[in-house]
Design a protein that fits this description.
The chain has 296 residues and is an alpha/beta fold. Helix content is 35%, strand content 23%. Strands 1, 2, 3, 4, 5, 6, 10, 11 and 12 form a 9-stranded mixed β-sheet that branches. Mean pLDDT is 88; it is low at 291-296.
């Protein structure tokens, strides 16, 4: 069983759902890009019951409020969302578990991490022009969305699920349906996606490998990285950035040494949702080990 939570913010609220005893070891769970807190629905019931798990919806995702009109979605804003929720919960020491983009958010702020299909950082394009082009694209898309002022499209439940699966080839139909339960609202015309369209144009914070290493050196506690064999971090799925991924993995291993645990498991980018039993044992052992808490 879980309970729904709401945390007030200046533009509305950040929504979350919680499992376990509130006095248990705190674990804050962060979903991936354009997903929502339901991404952890099948995994958390398999994890240690003595923990208190809070899975939040980032602003503009799931049941959380959209940011005010005219405001873009900067990557660091998601870090601020986490800080606001941690402050509201009065948590100073806790574990962060992030999937994909959620792992990149987690990598910027705490000492102890569980990263699912994430290396904790977003790597910068090698070419300066490519970096500039990515920033221009964010601005262009935001202004284009504002100019169009389109009403969110309503779809039948079947069409909404099909659209979600087409955009996420790693999702199963069951996993997609779970995300859709929190990611869409029923209207007289059909289901409307809850996510803010501006979130698709978020301005990301990119780092060079050298900058990542300096951030890694600040990590004081243990890090668990779970990589799926058919996920987004394997060579054939990231041909243009594979050497960056390899370099970052090597940096983790050389910098953190005994603090890092790297596990490769069968499955896709959404292995924690599609086949949670594949990763639940690894995560459970990590959570129950001594000295498990992270400091904000």
């Amino acid at each position: 069983m879980f309970s729904e939570l709401k945390f007030p913010v200046p533009w509305g609220h950040v929504a979350a759902k919680a499992w376990g005893p509130s006095e248990g070891h705190p674990v804050l769970c962060l979903h991936g890009w354009l997903d929502n807190a339901n991404t952890f629905d099948k995994l958390i019931p398999l994890l240690p019951r003595g923990c208190y798990y809070v899975a939040m919806d980032f602003s503009g995702h799931g049941l959380s409020s959209h940011r005010p009109a005219g405001c873009p979605y900067h990557f660091l804003d998601y870090v601020t969302d986490v800080r606001r929720v941690a402050a509201a919960l009065q948590w100073r020491r806790f574990t962060l578990m992030g999937h994909s983009m959620g792992g990149a958010v987690a990598g910027m702020m705490v000492d102890k991490l569980i990263l699912l299909e994430s290396l904790g950082f977003l790597l910068a394009p090698e070419d300066t022009e490519a970096w500039l082009k990515s920033k221009r694209r964010v601005i262009d898309r935001l202004l284009s969305l504002e100019a169009k002022q389109q009403t969110p499209k309503a779809r039948s439940p079947e069409a909404a699920l099909q659209r979600l699966l087409e955009a996420n080839s790693h999702l199963t139909a069951e996993g997609g349906a779970i995300l859709l339960q929190r990611g869409a609202t029923e209207t007289p015309a059909g289901l409307v996606y809850n996510r803010d369209m501006r979130a698709r144009t978020q301005s990301r914070e990119f780092f060079t490998v050298e900058q990542c290493v300096k951030l890694l050196q600040k990590i004081q506690d243990r890090v668990l990285i779970i990589v799926s064999q058919d996920g987004l971090l394997v060579p054939h799925n990231l041909p243009s950035r594979n050497h960056f991924v390899k370099a970052l993995q090597e940096a983790f291993e050389s910098t953190l040494k005994e603090h890092i645990q790297l596990a490769e498991v069968p499955g896709s980018h959404f292995v924690h949702l599609n086949e949670p039993e594949v990763v639940s044992g690894i995560i459970s052992n990590f959570l129950t080990a001594q000295n498990t808490r992270a400091r904000l």
